C-alpha cells in the first residue's frame, strides 16, 4: 500500500475539509493524475489499484487511455458509497460488489445467483450488512478472478455493455409519454 502526500501550487489540498469546493473536479483530477504518474515513474505495478468514490473516477480512464502503453491491463477495484459513480466504473469494466438496495438491486445482477441470462449478469450482490455477507460477495468475485479469469473478463465486458445513461432512460420516458398521449 502506498500513500501519496498531496502538494500543488494551487493549494488544492491544504484546506479544512476534503471536498465541497468549487474546484473539486480539478483538484481530484490533479490528484488522480499525480497518483498514476507516480506509479508510472516509480515503476510500481500493483496487482490492483484500489480507488474509493467519485474523487478517483478518472483513474481508470488515465490507466486505459494515457498510460495503456506503460501500464497495460492494469486492474482497478472501485468502492463507492452509492449512486452514479458505479455506472461510470462499470463502463470501464469495473465489476461492482454492492448491497441489494435502491438502484443497486435494479442495475447489478449477481453473477452466481441472478435469474437473469448470463449476458446480463454484471457483478456481485450481498443482502445483509454484516461482515460475513460482504466477505461472501467479495470472496465469490475473487474466486472467479483467480480461478476463471476468462469468465471474469466476460463479466467485466457485461458491465461495459450495460447502458444506464439518461439517453436510454429518456427514450423510455418518451415512449411512456407517447402511450399516455394516445389514451
Structural class: mainly alpha
CATH class category label of the largest domain: Alpha Beta
> Which CATH-level-2 architecture of the largest domain?
3-Layer(aba) Sandwich
- The tally of domains stands at 2
Integer-rounded radius of gyration: 19 Å
Outline of the structure:
With 183 residues, the chain is mainly alpha-helical. It has 2 domains: 23-79, no CATH class; 90-172, Glycogen Phosphorylase B (Rossmann fold, 3-Layer(aba) Sandwich), CATH 3.40.50.
Your description of this structure?
This protein is mostly helical. Strand 1, helix 2 and strand 2 form a beta-alpha-beta unit. The longest helix is centred in the N-terminal third of the chain and has 18 residues. It is globular, with a radius of gyration of 19 Å.
Ordered list of secondary-structure elements with their pairings:
Layout: H1 24-41, E1 48-52, H2 59-66, E2 75-79, H3 85-91, E3 97-99, H4 102-107, E4 124-126, H5 131-147, H6 149-161, H7 166-181
Parallel strand pairs: 1-2, 3-4
Helix pairs in contact: 5-6
Amino acid at each position: 500500500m502506498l500513500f501519496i502526500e498531496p502538494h500543488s501550487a494551487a493549494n488544492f489540498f491544504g484546506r479544512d475539509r476534503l471536498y465541497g469546493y468549487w474546484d473539486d473536479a480539478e483538484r481530484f483530477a490533479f490528484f488522480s493524475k499525480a497518483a498514476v504518474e507516480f506509479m508510472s515513474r516509480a515503476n510500481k505495478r500493483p496487482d490492483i489499484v484500489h480507488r474509493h468514490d467519485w474523487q478517483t473516477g478518472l483513474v481508470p480512464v488515465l490507466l486505459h487511455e494515457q498510460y495503456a502503453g506503460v501500464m497495460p491491463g492494469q486492474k482497478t477495484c472501485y468502492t463507492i458509497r452509492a449512486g452514479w459513480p458505479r455506472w461510470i466504473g462499470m463502463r470501464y469494466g469495473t465489476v461492482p460488489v454492492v448491497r441489494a438496495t435502491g438502484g443497486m438491486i435494479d442495475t447489478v445482477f449477481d453473477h452466481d445467483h441472478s435469474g437473469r441470462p448470463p449476458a446480463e449478469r454484471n457483478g456481485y450482490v450481498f443482502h445483509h450488512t454484516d461482515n460475513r455477507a460482504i466477505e461472501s460477495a467479495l470472496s465469490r468475485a475473487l474466486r472467479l478472478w483467480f480461478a476463471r479469469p476468462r469468465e471474469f473478463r466476460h463479466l467485466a465486458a457485461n458491465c461495459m455493455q450495460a447502458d444506464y445513461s439518461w439517453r436510454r432512460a429518456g427514450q423510455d420516458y418518451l415512449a411512456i409519454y407517447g402511450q399516455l398521449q394516445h389514451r
